[in-house]
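quick one: nicotinamide-adenine-dinucleotide bound model?
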Amino acid sequence: MKIGIVGAAGRMGRMLIEAVLAAKGCELAGGSEQPGHAAMGDDLGALIGAKPLGLKIGDDAKALFARSDAVIDFTAPAAVPVHAKLAVERKVALVIGTTGLAPAHLEALAAAAKTVAVVRSANFSIGVNLLLGLTRQAARVLDESYDVEILEMHHRHKVDAPSGTALALGEAAAEGRQAELAKVSQRVRDGHTGPRRSGDIGFATLRGGDVVGEHAVIFATEGERIELAHKASTRAIFAKGAVRAALWTQGRKPGLYSMRDVLGFV
Ligand code: NAD
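yep, here:
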């Protein structure tokens, strides 16, 4: 399978080059960047500090799509509809990691998904997606006598709390329990809070140092406690998951898919 990378000189783009080269069952079709990018014309191998691959960064996304079976896009929201159109024209599967998409961008992806397979995820880490599935399952099995608490830690520069992934874990636990997160979520505790309300899903946030991202989901009852946890130490995990998604699209029917589909969680 031939995999192309748009935005190949970006932080994730470089990780994606490495991930495609390391994966079995695929080869690198090439990489593109927006016109005028400083890395234009650079060899893709040199870009990641490896030996030259004989593939140069170009600005012709159309040509890249023409020689790819799947294209991975970790770029910017404005580029997404352009790439969605090219995917349809060339019947190429699309893997979208770009975040911050507005309704118009999502509509462009939904339209493309009528013709090709599109996988979109705000977090392509296989481990985090596995954690989401396990959390959903555990919440389905364990009744409300098990208190759910979600603990996350990130580096000192992170500006939002709880993290988007912590909230997604809360959604997964609520879904497993057939509850509505907004009604049971306890995002902050301070002062005289009174006893814990049965059925609540609690959140706790830690910030410090250079932690890439750590999440734990705790199910605590009288007599036992189950803890599911994930620790990220490099952004390479997102690239690895995206390449896995690209490989998964091979022979797949058109449609809009998520990592939940790729990993086979119901
Ligand atoms: P970055 O700025 O380092 O890289 C983005 C690259 O895309 C740049 O090189 C830029 O020139 C290029 N680009 C922009 N418009 C383009 C266009 N029209 N055609 C071709 N290239 C274009 O950013 P990054 O840290 O690599 O992140 C990129 C995106 O991926 C962001 O939206 C980020 O939030 C997202 N992201 C998602 C996940 C996930 O798991 N889904 C993980 C990490 C980052």
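The longest strand covers residues 213-221.
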